[in-house]
Each structure stands twice: as structure tokens, then as C-alpha cells.
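Q: Here's a chain of 378 amino acids. Please give me its 3D structure as C-alpha cells.
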Amino acid sequence: MQMTRDFVITLDGLGELVAGLRNRGYQVVGPSLRDGAIVYDELESADELPAGWTEIHDPGAYRVERRGDEARFGFTVGPHSWKQFLLPSRVRLWRARKNGEVTELEEEPPPEKPFAFFGVRSCDLSAVAIQDRVLTGGRYVDRDYAARREGIFVVVVDCAEPGRLCFCTSMGTGPAAESGYDLALTELLDGEHRFLVRVGSERGAEVMRDVPHEAASGADNETAEALVETARSSMGRELDTEGLKEDVLANLEHPRWDEVADRCLSCGNCTLVCPTCFCVGVEDTADLTGEVVERERVWNSCFSLDHSYVHGGAVRQSGRSRYRQWLTHKLVTWHDQFGTSGCVGCGRCIAWCPVGIDITEEAAAIRNGKEGVSDEGS
């Protein structure tokens, strides 16, 4: 279906949209204010959206602030991404229970209801598409991810005000979504508080039939386009991707790797908040009787020493090599594996790094100069 900005809905219509999705059997998850952060959680109504709140991001810093209006989507991205619903940080894969001479195996069931992701930013929608490619697009499909991903209804919200750490324009992932959604909203605050809606699927058109709406005017379209264009030209960060792969691979012994390693804590925060990182491990546990054994999949990180462990020890023993592995994989070799960058320009890794390491700054610094190639694992 061709994407067009066809409809306008009011705040009441936004509430009807959430209610309509819930009535259709979706578990609606979207942004809400909790514990001093804007996070993604289940929504029972549109009243739970963070009305009048925004976020301030800086390297190593995050806080929420009141806005001067009642915008429902007047923020960019918080500490959570949609990854937590599709690739949870901990999920049981199976449980084995001994019943006499028979061992019974139970697999973890999929969620009871399909998700409706409400308020997805374009950069995060691109991140979901990347994880789709990684976890379901190859020879081996992640069963749990595929079950959670199936049937998801996506409501995107275009960005009108990028954050200080955003660089989605550099990565070609925003600030407006071009595909992969069912409905897309643009929040308009000039005069009457309303939302422009464009339909991206037949499911989206069906849902909109039950939501009170009016046809969008030419002025509404122009206002929405101007907001997106302003966001596109006012990113807080920039990353030049032209020739980046060749420049980084030619500088694997650049002294900047040592400088950033002196600051890096190897805490893995950047990988935990990243919407595309997918590294996991497994943990096996048994009860005291030995009658029940469980296997769980848990998030892992290339910053942990054991992540690169092979027989005899870890390949990447230094913080320098682990940071280099993360940045080169994210910006460079991900292209070779999956045909795309592993970065969508959301800026989360900068905000949630305790020492404020900035991936755009490091990539720019490493491009300067050419050195030899290290023998240490990369």
C-alpha cells in the first residue's frame, strides 16, 4: 500500500486507537513515565502516555523534564528498546522433568497475545528490521523470537525534535519511517492538538475504519513535512559513513584504541541498551533433587571476558580488543554478515555509557591515520 498522509485524528481519536487495538486482542505496549525515565510498558489506555514530558540526553547522562505543552510523543528514545519484548533479557527455552523412568520436556510457550507496538520511532523500527534479518532471515531461525515477532501491529511516530545524541539521518534510518509499519503518526501541536495518520498496511486501514477521523488538509500535510524536515536538519550528532569501513579496517592499530580503552569500563551498558545487539548465552540450572532441569537464554555482551572464550582461554583478553571488536562489528563487519550497519543512530550507547564514550567521536578519530594490523583477536 502506498504511504499517504490521509487522515487526522484528535486526542480522543488517539485513545480510540489504543482501545481498538486492545479490543482486537493485541497486547498494546508503548511509552510511559516510570521511575524517572520514559520506558516501554503495557498500555491500558492512551492516558498512560507521557503527556508533557521530554528527555534530555548527554554523554553519560539522562533525565526527564517537563515540556511547555502536552505532547504525547515529545521525546526521542529512552533506556528501553523494543528488543526487550522480542528478544527478552532472560527467557526459559525448556524445562526437563523426570517422571519415573520418563523425562518430560516442556518448551516455553509463546506470548498469549500478539503485540501492538505503539509509538515506535523510525530508528527503532529499523533496528527491529535488522534483528529480523539476523534472527529469522538466515538458515537457522530463532524460534522464540519468531513466535514473538509474528503478527505484531506497528504504530510509528515520526520524530519532530531529535535529541542531542541522535544521528539517524547519518544512518538513513529516520526521522520518518518509510515502510514496515501499519500506521504512522505525526503529532501536530500548532493550534488544535491532533495527529496526522498515514496507512502502511491493510490491517492499518481496517483499524482506522473504527477510529473517528477526518481527511487531512494540504496545510496538515505541509506542517507534518516541515516538522520532519526540521528534525532531519537538526540532529545532535553526525557520523560520516562514506568509506568508513575501509578507513576503520586500515586503522586497527590506531592509538585511539588505547585511549578509549583507558576510559572504557567494559561494563557492557552500550550493548544492553543497543536496539540491535543480539549476543546471548545459555544457563542451565537444576533443582536440589535433580528431578527438574531448566535451560534459559540470557543476554550476553562482547565486552564480557568469557564472550570470546574458546578452549584454552578468551581470545579478547584486553579491554582494548573488546572495544575494538564492538565498534568494528557494529559499524563495519556487520555489513559483511547482514548487508547493513549494526547502528541505527539512536544515541543510546552514548547516553548510557557511564564515562560518556561517544561512538561518533571515536569513529571519526580512528579514521585518521593508517597503522599496522594487530595479531590480537579482533
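Q: Can you summarize the key feature?
A: Residues 35 and 59 are 20 Å apart (CA to CA).
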